[in-house]
Amino acid sequence: MLLNFVFVIDKDDLGKRTKEFEYVKLMAQFYKKWVMDTFSIDVEVQCDEMVAHRQGLLSRLDTSVLLEDHRSRGKNTFHFYLCHFRPLWTDCPCEGYYAENFAMILWQKPKDEDDILFLAQKNCTVVSHELSHEFLRQNKVKKQSDIVHDAWSKHVFGGLPFEQYGKNFEKTSTNPYFLTIDTSGFR
User: Fold this and answer.
1) 123-158: string of b/e by CB count within 10 Å (b at 16+)?
2) Count of C-beta atoms within a 10 Å radius of residue 21
3) Which strand (E) or helix (H) includes residue 82?
4) How confident is the model over 6-51, as pLDDT tens digits?
5) What is the pTM of this model?
6) Where are the alpha helices (DSSP H) in the chain?
7) How is the chain split into domains, by residue range?
8) Which of 39, 50, 88, 158 is most buried (most C-beta within 10 Å)?
9) Are 172 and 181 in contact (CB under 8 A)?
């Protein structure tokens, strides 16, 4: 299975968010390992940039445009869009949306381009949330939505720490490079 991360950026930001895209490429490799370790599913990963041109109010880039892009790229590829806008509708308690072989999140831009911890806390965690939905669904886990949302609520409201991983993709207790949802309740 191919998991394609698509970093959606404004045309005006083209060339200005290179460090974030480098993080996305490394994050994709991390999630290749994480998905195998957590869900026993082997995925190949790919990263692309999608440039969003300024459009009028009635022709804005939104979820329906991304779904059309997903269909045109091939519905059998899992496309994960990292967007500069929120999904119009979601049933997730985070800024994300998923459907079969499709996911999108609001990718938050750090104030300091070298702030890896911000990228891990604000973006990587939400990516793991949406990936958990899809891969639990693929593994035919009943009530997967409840399982993922219960874990998320424990993180947000109960003080449960996110799982921490270093740049080498191994668990760590210091200097996390990637943070994910706690998967101990998924087994």
Assistant:
1) bbbbbbbbbbbbbbeeeebeebbebbbebbeebeee
2) 17
3) strand 78-83
4) 999 888 888 899 999 999 999 999 999 999 999 999 999 999 998 8
5) 0.91
6) 18-39, 63-73, 116-119, 125-138, 144-158
7) 2-116+129-142
8) 39
9) no
